[in-house]
Design brief:
There is one protein chain. The chain has two domains: 234 residues, Aspartate Aminotransferase, domain 2 (3-Layer(aba) Sandwich); 121 residues, Aspartate Aminotransferase, domain 1. The protein is 39% helix and 16% strand. The chain contains 13 helices and 14 strands. The strands form four sheets. Strands 1-9-8-5-4-2-3 form a seven-stranded mixed sheet, with helices on both faces. Strand 2, helix 5 and strand 3 form a beta-alpha-beta unit. Helix 3 runs parallel beside helix 9 and helix 4 packs across helix 8. The longest helix is centred in the last third of the chain and has 18 residues. The chain is globular. It starts with 13 loop residues before the first helix and ends with a helix. It binds pyridoxal-5'-phosphate. Pyridoxal-5'-phosphate binds next to helix 4 and helix 5. Keywords: Coiled coil, Pyridoxal phosphate. InterPro entries: DegT/StrS_aminotransferase, PyrdxlP-dep_Trfase, PyrdxlP-dep_Trfase_major, PyrdxlP-dep_Trfase_small. Belongs to the DegT/DnrJ/EryC1 family. One of its GO terms (molecular function) is pyridoxal phosphate binding.
């Protein structure tokens, strides 16, 4: 008898996602190729309209990446080099876009129950020169953004939402991205709404901020060849915009599938000596990632890899432990919750085309590891 080898379980399967939307994505690309218009044309303008109306914001401006969305948002808010912006210490990718805007990074630890910023952690980090808070909805799980928004208003500082991992998530009756003065999205291919390359979006209800980001994404121009400040080249291209337009109508369905997969994981892992990293939630997560906290993280990671199950770590280092940010002057031990998480966190496979059978296999292997 030949026993069929179980196929490798991928961490994310972009090919499967493409296969499930092949006709729509191919048509979108073809449409752009035949239009002969590749930069800042009808597709970007239409996607900006469709994305802002999906979220419920007045304006959306397509940019080249989530990193650029953060940089341009902070520049649009006119935050100076002598002023500070609070970011969570446990979110490696956010630090770059914020730092590139030239502001001072002010790190805050996170709440152990959901690994997001909390009012208490913000209070510990706030300084007299703090001008903004960047709240990250990590792993797709909403932070207490209503309270944080109230707190920021009370202090007269800006709130920026980093929704890179939380496209389509709800908070009460509103979508994430509608609470900040300005909010940022990434369409990196593995995101819940992913392009076939890089892409990002800034959304806001403030016309002035939207205009400023529009100008900053194109040399700082207010009209062609009239640049009033030094901007950059950060444009979402037409092919990516067309692909994202094709995928946007499926985002809620994709997120619903992720929620079902997460429930299955939570159910099957219930009796094991692990903690689901963001299970204690304020509002339902859209599970961009499915991280668990486990004492013997490195051993479990090796065991799963040896059993053909791909896993990831988000993130193995905190911002202050990254050589590029050494100059911030923080020390080991300054952010205990973030540091502990980086040693024990492990992301299990999670994407909309993952099957229930694959989740069951992952959980069986984890059970086997503990036996
Ligand atoms: C929370 C968060 N912020 C910002 C970014 C940066 O986005 P991008 O890779 O599109 O520059 C990412 C992407 O990894 C992210 O996950």
């Amino acid at each position: 008898m030949v026993i069929k080898e179980a196929a490798r379980i991928l961490f994310v399967d972009l090919k499967a996602e493409y296969e499930s939307l092949r006709t729509e994505v191919n048509q979108a690309i073809q449409r752009v190729l035949e239009s002969g218009n590749f930069i800042l044309g009808q597709e970007v303008a239409s996607f900006e309209k469709e994305f802002s109306s999906y979220l419920g914001t007045e304006y959306a401006v397509g940019v080249a990446s989530g990193t650029d969305a953060l940089t341009l948002s902070l520049k649009a808010l006119d935050i100076k080099e002598t002023e500070g912006v609070i970011i969570p210490a446990n979110v490696y990718p956010t630090a770059f876009g914020v730092s590139l805007s030239g502001v001072q990074l002010q790190l805050a630890d996170v709440n152990p129950s959901n690994l997001n910023l909390s009012i208490d952690s913000i209070k510990n980090a706030i300084r007299p020169n703090t001008r903004a808070i960047v709240v990250v909805h990590l792993y797709g799980n909403p932070a207490v953004v209503d309270e944080i928004s109230e707190f920021a208003k009370g202090k007269g500082i800006y709130l920026v939402e980093d929704c890179a991992q939380a496209a389509g998530a709800d908070f009460g009756q509103k979508k994430l991205g509608t609470f900040g003065d300005i909010s940022c999205f990434s369409f990196y291919p593995t995101k819940n709404l992913g392009a076939c390359g890089d892409g990002g979006m800034v959304v806001t209800n403030n016309e002035g901020l939207a205009q400023r980001v529009k100008s900053l994404r194109m040399y700082g121009e207010t009209e062609r060849y009239k640049s009033t400040e030094i901007g950059q080249n950060s444009r979402l291209d037409e092919i990516q915009a067309a692909i994202l337009r094709a995928k946007l109508p499926y985002l809620d369905r994709f997120n619903a599938k992720r929620k079902i997969l997460a429930k299955l994981y939570i159910d099957l892992l219930r009796d094991m000596p692990i903690r689901v990293a963001n299970h204690k939630r304020v509002c339902e997560s859209v599970h961009h990632l499915f991280p668990i906290i486990v004492e013997k993280r490195d051993e479990l990671q090796e065991f799963l890899k040896a059993n053909d199950i791909a896993v990831g770590v988000h993130y193995p280092v905190c911002v202050h432990e990254t050589p590029a940010f050494e100059n911030l002057g923080y020390a080991n031990g300054d952010f205990p919750v973030s540091e502990l998480a980086s040693r024990h966190i492990l992301s299990l496979p999670m994407y909309q085309n993952l099957t229930f059978e694959e989740v069951e296999r992952v959980c069986c292997k984890i059970e086997q590891f503990f036996k």
